Amino acid sequence: MSFPLLTVTAALPAVGAVATAAVPAARRTAAKWLALLVSLATLVLAAVVLIRFDPDGARYQLTESHAWISDFGVRYELGVDGIGAALMALTALLIPFVIGAGWHDADDADDRADEQANRRWRPTQGFFALILAVEAMVLVSFAATDVFLFYIFFEAMLIPMYFLIGGFGDRAHAAGEEEGAKQRSYAAVKFLLYNLAGGLVMLAAVIGLFVVSADSLGQGTFSLPELLKARASGDLTMATSTERWLFLGFFVAFAIKAPLWPLHTWLPNAMGESTAPVAVLITAVVDKVGTFAMLRFCLGLFPEASSWATPVVLGLALVSVLYGALLAVGQRDIKRLVAYASISHFGFIILGVFAMTSQGQGGATLYMVFHGISTAALMLVAGFLISRRGSRLIADYGGVQKVAPVLAGTFLIGGLATLSLPGLAPFVSEFLVLVGTFERYPVAGIIATVGIILAALYVLVLYQRTMTGPIRRPEIEKMPDLKVREVAVVAPLVALLLFLGVFPKPLTEIVNPAVEHTLSDVQKKDPKPQHPVAEHAGSDDKPAGHGGGDHE
Amino acid sequence: MIGLLVGVPLLGAAVLLLGGRRLDRSGHWLATLLAAVSFVIGAVLFASMLGEDAESRAMHSKLFSWVPVEGFQADMAFQLDQLSMTFVLLITGVGTLIHLYSVGYMEHDPKRRRFFAYLNLFLAAMLLLVLADNFLLLYVGWEGVGLASYLLIGFWQHKPSAATAAKKAFLVNRVGDAGLAIAIFLMFTTFGTFAFAPVLSAAGEASEGKLTAIGLMLLLAACGKSAQVPLQSWLGDAMEGPTPVSALIHAATMVTAGVYLITRSGAIFNGAPDAQLVVVIVGAVTLLFGAIVGCAKDDIKKALAGSTMSQIGYMILAAGLGPIGYAFAIMHLVTHGFFKAGLFLGAGSVMHGMNDEVDMRRYGGLRKHMPVTFVTFGLGYLAIIGFPGLSGFFSKDQIIEAAFGKGGTEGWILGAVTLLGAAITAYYMTRVMLMTFFGEERWRKAPTPSPAEPDVEPAAETRGAYAPPHPHESPKIMTIPMIVLAFGSVFAGGLFKAGESFVGWLEPVTQFEHGHSPVSATAVTAATIVALVLGVGAAYLQYGRKPVPALAPRGSLLTRAARRDLLQDDFNHVVLVSGGTHLTRSLVYVDNKVVDGAVNGTAASFGGLSGRLRRLQNGFARSYAVSMFGGAAVLIAATLLMRAV
Amino acid sequence: MSPINYVYLAALLFTIGAAGVLIRRNAIVVFMCIELMLNAANLTLVAFSRMHGNLDGQIMAFFVMVVAAAEVVVGLAIIVMLYRSRHSASVDDASLMKL
Questions:
Q1: Could you tell me whether strands A61-69 and A74-80 are parallel, antiparallel, or unpaired per DSSP bridges?
Q2: Do A266 and B190 lie within an 8 Å CB cutoff?
Q3: Which of B612, B614, B622, B629 should one mutate to test binding to chain C, selecting the residue with the greatest count of C CBs within 10 A?
Q4: Distance separating alpha carbons of residues B386 and B530, to the nearest angstrom
Q5: Buried (b) or exposed (e) across B448-468, using 16+ Cβ within 10 A?
C-alpha cells in the first residue's frame, strides 16, 4: 500500500482545524499563525499531488480504497483525475490568501468577547478553524471517487460555511449593526436551507443510483470507477426515464451550488453579508464543487440524460451569463456586484461543460481555476477597500485612486481579470469556453460573447465610480494605501494571473486527458472543421475526418 | 530578436510600474531609451530584411506553445513580414519621438512615471498586435492597446470627464473586440486553426458565405478600433487624454490597427466581395462623417480627431477595394502617421503655451509667438490637405485614383466621395490653421459665454479678473520631435512614390493589381487639386477674410448637429444608455421580487403551513388521545380493506 | 361457552375505556380507563390463547400485567405531584406541553 497522499492532504487541514480551535483564548495570534502554517503545508502537499500526477497515466491516480460500510457498498475511495488535481491545487492555493486577508476579521467579535469577559467564546480560533474545516471537506469532495463519500462531504461543508457566514460580518452595513446582524443570519439560513434542499434531492438520487446498480450488477456500489466501467461495458443499464430522473436529482443539487439561474439568489446574500475572505471561500472554492461535480458525476454517470438535458442547461447557462452581468451593472453594493459577476461566470463554466467539446470542457475546467484566482484578487482588494471606509455602497467612494494608487491598481487588475482581458489568465479559459460552445452551438456562442461586453461594462463602471473622479468625502482623503500584509496577499494572486495568462500550458496538459475521458463517457466528438488545413492536421488526423461538411 | 521587440517596452512598463517612487526622477528617460532601443532593433531587422530576396523576407519565430488544448493550438509566435515591418518602424519611430516630446510635455505632472509606463505598455501591445502570427495573439495585442488607451485617456482620472471618456472608449472597443472574437470562432470552425499562414492560404476553399461572415466580423472589430461608423463615437471623447497620447495612439498608430487587420486578412476579403462592399461603404461614410464633424468643432483636438476619423475612412475604403488598394491604404497610413502625429504635437505645443486652452476661438495670431510650432504645424497642414509634392498628396491621390479604378457606378460614386472628402479636408484644416495662427489675437480679451451653449457657465478661473495667457514657444525637447515629423510629412510620400518603391515592398504580402480607372491619372490629380483649391478658398472666405467671432455662432442645423458628433451620442444615449439603465433596473427588480420572491415565498409558505400544523399541538392530552385513536382506526380500516381487496 | 364471547367482552371493555379516556377530565378516572383498556387487551390475549391452544398469549398477558403495575406506580405519582402543585386533577389544566 503506497503512501495515502490524498488522505493526508485532506486530513492535514482537518487536524489543523481541531488544533486551531484548541488554542487558548489569550493566544489569538498563535491561532492565526497556526492556521496559516497548516494551510501553507496543505498547499505544499497539494503541489506534490499536482507534481505526482502523471497526465499520460491512468484516469484516476493516487487512488486509495478501503471498505467502509460494506452492507451498502460504501467505500472510502479517493483518486484524482486532472480536473480534480487542478481544483485541489486551487483550493489549497487560495486558503492561505483567505486566511491572510481575513487576519483581522474576527478581531471585532473577539473584542466583544473580551468585553463580556467570556473566555469560553473564542471567535478568532473559531474563524480560522472553520476555514480549515471547509478546506478539508472541499479537498475530500474533489478527491472522492465514491459517490456516497462525495455526498457526505458535499453536504457537510455547509455546516462550517453556515457559521462562517452567519458568525462573522464586516460591520459595514448601511442600516446599522443590528440590521446587519439580522441580514447576516438571514443570508446564512438561506444559504444553508437552499443548499440542504438541493442536497436532499441529491440524496434521493444517490439512493436511487444504489438501487439501480444493485439491480443490474447484483451487488450495489457507489464506486465511480466501477460504475463507469459497468456503464461502458453495458453491464449497468438503466431505463431512459430512470436515468433522467437520477440525472436531475444530481444536477439540481449541483446547479444550486454552482449556482445556475434561477437557483442563484442565495449567492448575492451570502457573499454580500459575509466578510470578503469568506465570500471568496464561497464563490472561489465551495461553489466550484458544484461545477466540478457536474463534470465528474452528471456527465460520467448519465451520458444519455446529459445529452437530453443539454439544450435546457445551455439555455439556463446563457441566461445566467447575461442576467448575472446585467444585474451586476445594476448593483449599488460592491460585494453583491462581484456576486452577480460570479453568477455570470458560472454561466460560462456550465456553458463550457455542456457544450461537450474538448475546448469547452477544457476551458470550463481552466475557468474554474482562473475564476477562483481572479475573483479572489478582486474580492479581497474590495474587502480591503471596504474595511477602510466601513461601507459596501459604491456611492460612498470616489477618487480612491488618488490617495491609494496601489489599492486602485490591484483593484483594476482584479477587475480586468474579471472582464477577461487577454494576457490575464481568465481570458484563456473564457475564450476556450466560447470557442468550444461556438463549434457546436454557434448561436449560443454568439449570445455568450455579448457577455464579455457586459463584463467590461460592470467592471469599468465599478472602477470609475469607486476609484476615479474627485474626492468627495473626507473619509477617503485619509484612506491609507495597502499595507504590507495586504500587498503580500494580493501580489502573488496578481502574479499568478499574469503568469497563467501567458503560460497556461502546465495546467492544460493536466486537464486535457481528463476532459478526453469525460467526452468519451458521453460519447461525443469535437465537430470537425469544414475545411481543415493540411498543415494543421497534427494530433487528430483520422482518415475519416476529411469528408468536409460533417455537421453533426 | 523579434520577441525582444515586444519584450523591451514591456520590460520598461513593468519596471516603471513596480519600481515605485524611486524611479520618479529617472523613469521617463528609461522609458524613452527603451522605446529607442526597440526602434533600433526594428531598424536592424529592417536592414537585414532588405538584404534578403523580396519573397523570402518574412521571418518567423515561435517562442512557446501558448494554449494547447485538444484540437486547439495557439502559439506564442511572431511573424515579421514586410507589412509588419512597416508598422514596426512606424510604431517605434513615432513612438520614440512622442516619448521624447512627452518628457517636456509632462514635465510637471506628478504621475509622470506612470504615464511613461503606460506609453511603454502601449508600445509593447501594439508591437504584439502587428507581430502576432495568429489571430488569437493578435487579439491579445488588440485588447492590450485598448487597455493602454483606456489607461491613458483616463490618465487624469480625477476629472470625471476623462474617466468617462476612458470607459466609453474601452466599452465601444469591446463591441468591436467581440466581433474579432466571433471572427476567430468562425475561422476555427471553418479551418480548424486561426494562424495567419494556414487560414489565409486556405481561404479560397471556404464558401463565400463563411468568408463574408468572417469578413464582416473582422470589419466590426476594425470599426471599433479605428473609430469607423457606427462605432466611432469614442474617438472625440478620447481627446480627454494628454495630447502626446492623442498623437501616438489616437492618430498615428492604434486607431490604424483596423486597417492593418483588414489588410492582413486580405485573402479572406478577396473571397468575399459582399464584405468588401460593406468595408468600402463604411470607409466612405466615415470619411464624410469625420470630415463634417471636423468642420464644426471649435476644440482644436476634437477637430483633429474628426480629421483622423476621416483619414482612416480613406484607408478603410482603400483596403476595401482589395488588391488594388491595400498598398495605398498602408501607404496613406504611414504618411498620415507622420503628419497627423505632427499636427497633434503642434496642437499640444499650442495648448502648452496657452494654459491648456483648447478652444480655437480663444486662439488667433499665434504664428508670431510660436514660430517653430507654426512652421511644423503648417507643413503638416499642407501634407494633410494634399498640397502637391508633399506626403499626403501622393498617398491620397492614389487612393482617389484606386477608388475610380474600382470601375462601374461604384467607382464613380467612390471617386466622387473621396474627392468631396478631399475638398472638405482642405476646408476644415484651413479653418484650423487660420483660427489658430492667423487673425486677431482673441485670447487677449476675457471670454464670454458662448451663444451656442448659453447655459454653460464660463470656467471658474475666468469669472474673476482675466489674465491673458502668455503664448510662448515650447522647449526644444518638444519642438525637435515636431521638426522630425514635419520632415516625414514633407518627404515620406515622395519617397514611397518614387519608383513605386512602397507598393513593391509590400507586394509579397498584400498582392497588387492595377485598377482600371476610367479616368486618367492626370485627370484625377487635376480634380484633386481643384477640390483642394475649392476647400481652401471656402475656408479662407469664411475665416481668413472676416474676423473670427470669439463666440461660436449658432450655426446651421448641420453645424449644430456636427458639433454634437452628428447626434450619434444622443442616439447612443437614448437607445443604449437609458434603455440599458431601464433594463438593468427592471431586472434588479425582477430578481429581488420575482426570482428571489419565489424562493422567499416558498420559505414563507412552508413557515405558514407549519404555523397551521402547530396549532394541532394544543397541549390537551385528550385531543392527542383522539388523534391516536383516530389514527389507529384508520390504520386498522386500511389493513382490513387491503385484506378484503 | 365459546371463547369468542370473551373477545366480544374485551372489545366492549376497550370501547368503554377509550370513551372514558376521551371524555373524562379527571386524571384518576382517565388513568383507570387506561387500565381498563389494558385489561381488555389482556382478556383478548388470554381468550385467543385459549382458542388457539397456545400458551404464548397467557405469558404475554402476564407481561402486560407487570408493565401495567409499574405504570400505575409512575402514573399515580405524577398525578399526585400534579395535584399538589396545581390543586386540580383535571388533565385539561395540564396543557404545558404545547409551545
A1: antiparallel
A2: no
A3: B622
A4: 11
A5: eebeeeeeeeeeeeeeeeeee
> Chain B partners of A442 at a C-beta cutoff of 8 Å?
185, 189
Which of the residue ranges A198-207, A355-364, A470-479, B626-635 would you say has the lowest mean pLDDT?
A: A470-479
Fold of C3-86: Helix Hairpins (1.10.287)
Largest CA distance in chain C: 53
| Strand partners of residue B68 | B73
Q: Tell me the pLDDT tens digit for each residue of B288-339.
A: 999 998 888 888 899 999 999 999 999 999 999 888 889 899 999 999 999 9
Any B CB within 8 A of A435 CB: yes
Which positions in chain B touch C91 (Cβ < 8 Å)? 620-622
Size of interface A-B (CB pairs under 8 A): 186
The answer, for B633 touching chain C at a CB cutoff of 8 Å, is: no
Q: Can you read off the three cell numbers belonging to residue A167?
A: 458568525
Neighbouring chains to A with at least 3 Cβ pairs closer than 8 Å: B
Q: Helix B112-131 vs helix B2-19: angle between axes, to the nearest 10 degrees?
A: 160
Asked if A359 lies within 8 A of B76 by C-beta distance, the reply is no
Query: Would you kindly state where each structural domain of chain C is located, as residue ranges?
Result: 3-86
pLDDT in tens, B558-592: 777 777 777 777 787 777 888 888 888 888 888 88
Q: Is B545 helix (H, G, I), strand (E, B) or coil?
A: coil
> Residues A471, A398: contact at Cβ < 8 Å?
yes
Chain A: closest CA distance from residue B455 (Å): 23
Three state DSSP letters for B353-408: HCCCCCEHHHCCCHHHCCHHHHHHHHHHHHHHHCCCCCHHHHHHHHHHHHHHHCCH
DSSP-derived letter for residue A394 is G
ipTM: 0.89
Q: Note whether C37 contacts B: Cβ–Cβ < 8 A.
A: no
Distances (CA, A) of A240 to A243, A248, A307, A518: 5, 12, 12, 20
- Confidence class of residue B453 from pLDDT cuts 50, 70 and 90? low
Share of chain A above pLDDT 90, in %: 50
The C-alpha angle with vertex A414 and arms to A409 and A418, in degrees rounded to 5, equals 140
Domain boundaries defined on chain A: 5-526
- For residue A131, the number of C-alpha atoms closer than 13 Å in the C-beta half-sphere is 37
**Based on C-alpha coordinates, what's the Rg of chain C?**
16
* Cell numbers describing residue A396: 460612498
pLDDT score for B557? 76
Q: d(Cα B407, Cα B417) in Å, to the nearest integer?
A: 14
| Tens-digit pLDDT profile for residues B376-421 | 999 999 999 988 888 888 888 889 988 888 878 888 899 999 999 9
Mean pLDDT of A537-547: 37
